[in-house]
Design goal:
One of its GO terms (molecular function) is kinase activity. The chain has 348 residues and is α/β, with parallel strands linked by helices. It is 34% helix and 24% strand. The radius of gyration is 19 Å and the shape is globular.
Length: 348
């Protein structure tokens, strides 16, 4: 039985200051490797899945360090390719109180920025693949990375591999002339599973997001509104089988409420709300949600409610872990998932 999940995207070096300092304040940087699809891959591997990650890295010590890091988490990197002059990076200024977080990207002319169609042996990479996962970030970095991503989707479709697409809209990345909404809608048309938050579904549907104003775990979701919303999204993307939405209200920089939605064949599934305060590190929370859902789908796809519950719990727990990777096991996630009643995470 095929069980391999293939992911494709750019690995980045994340740099941020200790103690929530601003980027222009003197002091040492904290370094982490990350990137949406790499985060998904590590989370899947931590959950025990067979996962292969594909990217293009510079053939230097930094690139080798990333490969070693991924292999340390049992991620298959056999289809990794090498080339280009530099690793992409970003500088992350953490939020504090009423000050929002901010990001400065430094990824122009990176190894992934200059990737081109034909560089990756997709037939080899997709051997025994059960799911192919990528995100809209890979479409946004450069025209070349967009073309290479489109090539991967065509190869996956030709091989009959289900496609998992994370819309992952990043406004600041779309600088090479293509219209983000048009491109992301084209990719969504090819997907079997679509992931996104409220704003990202707005990008691919053109419909305003439904407000989520939960201040605690007792908030009541407007089920009828979401049912009607996803009914319309399904009409727009009739070939997609599964729609998954992660929903967050950022009450303060260190206090979030989270929930999620799952829509399959006209039926809407909802789940509990997690109230998390204080947030240790919010990076990779959406990627943890995606990885946990794909894991659950591989194992319990006859139980959509369990799949959604598991995904949301994993995403909530990621807020307690520094860095981009969610390192919670299936057992740890299920322990929290199976607890009764509303949950407030008081992270110490």
């Amino acid at each position: 039985m095929k069980n391999k999940i293939v992911t494709f995207g750019e690995v980045l070096l994340r740099l941020s200051k200790f103690g929530r300092k601003r980027l222009f304040q003197p002091g040492e940087f904290i370094e982490n490797f990350g990137g949406s699809e790499a985060n998904v891959a590590v989370s899947l591997s931590t959950l025990g899945d067979n996962v292969q990650y594909i990217s293009r890295l510079p053939d230097n010590l930094l690139g080798k360090s990333i490969q070693m890091t991924l292999r340390n988490y049992n991620v298959n990197t056999d289809s990794m390719i090498w080339g280009g002059d530099r690793l992409g990076s970003y500088y992350f200024e953490e939020a504090a109180a009423m000050r929002n977080s901010s990001v400065v990207y430094d990824r122009n002319d990176s190894s992934f920025y200059t990737i081109k169609p034909g560089m990756i042996d997709w037939e080899k990479a997709f051997s025994d693949a059960a799911i192919y996962h990528f995100s809209g970030i890979s479409c946004a970095i450069s025209r070349d990375s967009l073309d290479a991503t489109w090539e991967s989707v065509k190869k996956a479709k030709a091989a009959g591999i289900p496609i998992s697409f994370d819309v992952n809209y990043r406004k600041n990345l779309w600088k090479f002339g293509s219209d983000a909404q048009d491109v992301l809608q084209i990719f969504a048309e090819k997907a079997d599973i679509i992931f996104g938050d409220q704003g990202e579904y707005e990008v691919i549907s053109g419909m305003p997001a439904i407000p989520f104003k939960a201040l605690d775990a007792n908030y009541e979701i407007e089920r009828d509104e979401y049912q009607a919303y996803f009914d319309k999204v399904q009409e727009m993307y009739p070939k997609c089988k599964i729609f998954v939405m992660a929903i967050r209200n950022q009450i303060a920089s260190t206090h979030h409420t989270l929930t999620g939605m799952l829509y399959i064949q006209g039926k809407l599934y909802t789940t509990r709300i997690y109230d998390i305060s204080p947030i240790v590190d919010p990076m990779g929370v959406g990627d943890a949600f995606i990885a946990a859902y794909l894991h659950a789908y591989q194992h319990w796809n006859d139980d959509p409610q369990r799949c959604l519950d598991f995904a949301l719990t994993a995403s909530s727990l990621k807020n307690t872990i520094p860095g981009d990777f969610n390192l919670n096991t299936e057992e740890e996630i299920e322990l929290v998932m199976n607890s009764n009643g509303p949950i407030k995470f008081d992270v110490e």
